[in-house]
């Protein structure tokens, strides 16, 4: 046995990252909680999933999770989304944690593109997968200038961009990942969660941690923190409107609905994107 | 997805995995052994070790087999394996000790030390061979008249040293940056130390770096000065780590690297017009395309001095895993974001009719 081999830990197939990475990511998370909305750089490790496929969320979850945790993983609000399934089996295999689809049972909820309807409770942690953490990318490309803008809280160009949008189009046309001021200091990108979910983050009882693996950034919204969508005094923030649509399963018109276009009569069929919430309302046991 | 039966997602994934295995099993040819991959696809194995940032030919060959020959996928397998390993020590290596298998000095006809063509097809006509070489015409024996003594000087003085002695290069050696930035532990962003840029380029996807170079030669942004190559070297480099108790360097392994010096003709108004400058490239394995692009981009980035966004391009856009992972994530379900996009289209139309 060579010197190197004798020093190495025995190999484990289900290991995702070493203890040094766990410690480093926990430190980054603590910094992110201490400075709400600030994008903390970290030495993002390569994960068994590709960049852009939840490698940031996976690192955050793996740094926090233990065998006594209960984890829920959703993609587009759906526990059965293929990427959610893949991440869930990696997480449970590596950590020994128990899986659930019930949000109330979970200690950690890892998600892509949605906050569970109604949000989470005190003590629960929401881990969001972030493809692009920089909210100002649309108004500035140079990362040195972006750093200055955040450092000086210089969000003037973002305000101008929103103003021009409103003047040209009659409404603010931003769709998901709506820029929000966190704790009155840093503007964040709310990942691509719909505007519908943004109010759930405002003074929420739960902790939200945003992990961007490719961009190597972690940021957080601690409980009871102000999360204010950037908008004008006379232009109210608009969430997605259901415009009379109701979920064809549970009948809800007070949840984020996604459309299934009908090929026969051209009329969309609507259903809740949060499948576990919808199952509960319609009296179906979650799988 | 959607409202399919319980655990529908998992069933679909398992079926997809079975299909991949079945397609491979359908082949009647023998499985490729690790040795075969290392011996016959050496340049591919080298490329994967470089882009994966791990020197381990056996691991790289296994990764290539698992990835069906896709080098970026294989690099991903290497790097996610690397994430599970603890850092035991920092490798020590001195590129002056490189023992060359190949060395080309285009800047001089007869440089100090040998011009050593080594194993290269640079001057071989690109004519497709349809026969397996071993069965064909290749005579492995050297004709008697061609035999020369192998060059005794396998660690020749580098050209940069010769130019320094002639006082022809700007001296920008420094001692205030002794430890290279470990880009696997630090998120390097501009302005970053040179070592971070070099590390990022050494791990960059080969095609991305070549394109970065060519884009700056012919593309719409940036202007890159073509260099004269001083050194193109391929050879073995000893790697040592500090002994855990004595602290003395102990040789633990050897790696093959490609090293390039790129000589720049300084022609800027604020530059020393009486001297040259040199860019540096080094990557794991035999990969001359990458090292040459790297050396030229290194000096270009130094001369640019933050005026353009070249450094941002090098640090943030050349990694193969980052670029392809993000590209391919577009295949993931996006029906929540798309619903939000369509909703705003309706909102804009409604606002139009109101006006």
What does it look like?
- The complex is a heterodimer of chains A (287) and B (355).
- Chain A is α/β, with parallel strands linked by helices and 287 residues long.
- Chain A has two domains: 19-138 and 177-229, 3-Layer(aba) Sandwich (Rossmann fold), CATH 3.40.50.11310; 242-287.
- Helix content of chain A is 28%, strand content 17%.
- Chain A has eight helices and twelve strands.
- Chain A has helices at residues 3-7, 19-34, 55-64, 82-95, 143-151, 156-169, 198-201, 275-281, and strands spanning 40-41, 70-75, 98-99, 108-112, 125-129, 179-182, 186-189, 207-212, 217-221, 227-229, 257-260, 269-272.
- In chain A, the strands form three sheets. A seven-stranded mixed sheet of chain A has the order 1-9-8-5-4-2-3. Chain A has a three-stranded antiparallel sheet with strand order 7-6-10.
- Chain B has 355 residues and is of the alpha+beta class.
- Chain B has two domains: 11-82, no CATH class; 95-118 and 152-318, no CATH class.
- In chain B, 40% of the residues lie in helices and 13% in strands.
- Chain B is built from twelve helices and four strands, in the order αααααβαααβββαααα.
- Chain B has helices at residues 8-25, 34-40, 42-52, 57-66, 71-82, 159-165, 194-203, 206-218, 288-304, 310-317, 320-328, 335-354; strands spanning 99-104, 228-242, 249-265, 276-284.
- Chain B has a four-stranded antiparallel sheet.
- The radius of gyration of chain B is 25 Å and the shape is globular.
- Chain B starts with 7 loop residues before the first helix and ends with a helix.
- The interface between A and B is large, with 78 and 63 residues.
């Amino acid at each position: 046995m060579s010197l190197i081999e004798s020093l190495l830990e025995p190999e484990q197939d289900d290991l995702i990252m070493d203890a040094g990475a766990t410690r480093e990511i926990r430190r980054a998370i603590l910094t992110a909680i201490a400075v709400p909305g600030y994008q903390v750089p970290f030495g993002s490790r390569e994960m068994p999933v590709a960049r852009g496929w939840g490698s940031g969320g996976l690192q955050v979850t793996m740094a926090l999770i233990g065998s006594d945790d209960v984890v829920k993983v959703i993609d587009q609000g759906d526990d059965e989304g293929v990427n959610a399934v893949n991440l869930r089996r990696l997480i449970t295999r590596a950590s020994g944690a128990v899986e659930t689809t019930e949000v109330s049972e979970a200690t950690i909820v890892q998600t892509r593109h949605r906050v569970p309807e109604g949000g989470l409770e005190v003590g629960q942690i929401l881990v969001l997968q972030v493809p692009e953490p920089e909210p100002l990318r649309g108004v500035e490309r140079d990362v040195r200038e972006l750093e200055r803008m955040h450092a000086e809280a210089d969000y003037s160009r973002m305000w101008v961009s929103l103003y021009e949008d409103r003047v040209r189009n009659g409404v603010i046309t931003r769709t998901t990942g709506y820029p929000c001021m966190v704790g009155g200091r840093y503007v964040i990108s709310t990942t691509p969660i719909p505007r519908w979910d943004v109010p759930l983050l405002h003074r929420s009882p739960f902790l939200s941690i945003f992990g961007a693996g490719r961009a190597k950034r972690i940021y957080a919204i601690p409980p009871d923190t102000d999360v204010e969508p950037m908008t004008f005094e006379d232009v109210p923030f608009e969430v997605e409107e259901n415009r009379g649509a109701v979920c064809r399963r549970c009948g809800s018109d007070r949840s984020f609905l996604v459309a299934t276009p009908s090929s026969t009569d051209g009329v969309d069929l609507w259903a809740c994107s949060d499948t576990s919430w919808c199952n509960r309302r319609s009296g179906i046991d979650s799988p | 997805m959607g409202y399919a039966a319980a655990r529908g997602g998992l069933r679909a994934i398992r079926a997809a995995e079975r299909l991949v295995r079945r397609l491979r099993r359908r082949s009647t040819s023998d499985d490729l052994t690790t040795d075969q991959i290392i011996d016959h696809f050496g340049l591919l194995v080298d490329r994967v070790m470089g882009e994966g940032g791990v020197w381990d030919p056996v691991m790289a060959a296994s990764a290539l087999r698992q990835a069906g020959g896709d080098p970026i996928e294989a690099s991903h397998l290497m790097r996610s394996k690397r994430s599970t390993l603890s850092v035991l020590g920092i490798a020590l290596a001195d590129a002056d000790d490189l023992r060359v298998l190949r060395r080309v000095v285009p800047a001089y006809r007869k440089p100090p030390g040998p011009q050593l063509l080594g194993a290269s097809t640079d001057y071989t006509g690109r004519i497709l061979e349809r026969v397996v070489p071993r069965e064909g015409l290749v005579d492995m024996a050297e004709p008697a008249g061609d035999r020369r003594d192998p060059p005794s000087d396998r660690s020749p003085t580098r050209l940069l040293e010769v130019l320094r002695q002639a006082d022809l290069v700007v001296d920008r050696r420094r001692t205030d940056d002794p430890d290279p930035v470990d880009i696997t532990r630090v998120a390097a962003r501009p302005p970053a130390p040179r070592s971070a840029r070099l590390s990022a380029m050494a791990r960059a996807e080969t095609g991305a770096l070549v394109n970065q170079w060519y884009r700056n030669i012919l593309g719409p942004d940036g202007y890159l000065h073509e260099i004269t190559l001083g050194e193109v070297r391929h050879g073995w480099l000893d790697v040592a780590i500090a002994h855990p108790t004595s602290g003395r360097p102990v040789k633990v392994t050897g790696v093959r690297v490609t090293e390039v010096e790129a000589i720049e003709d300084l022609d800027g108004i604020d530059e020393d017009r009486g001297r040259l400058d040199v860019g540096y490239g080094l990557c794991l394995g035999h990969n001359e395309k990458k090292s040459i692009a790297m050396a030229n981009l290194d000096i270009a980035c130094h001369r640019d001095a933050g005026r353009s966004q070249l450094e941002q391009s090098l640090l943030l856009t050349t990694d193969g895993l980052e670029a392809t992972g993000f590209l391919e994530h577009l295949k993931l379900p996006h029906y929540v974001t798309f619903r939000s996009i369509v909703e705003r289209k309706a909102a804009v139309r409604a606002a139009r009719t109101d006006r």
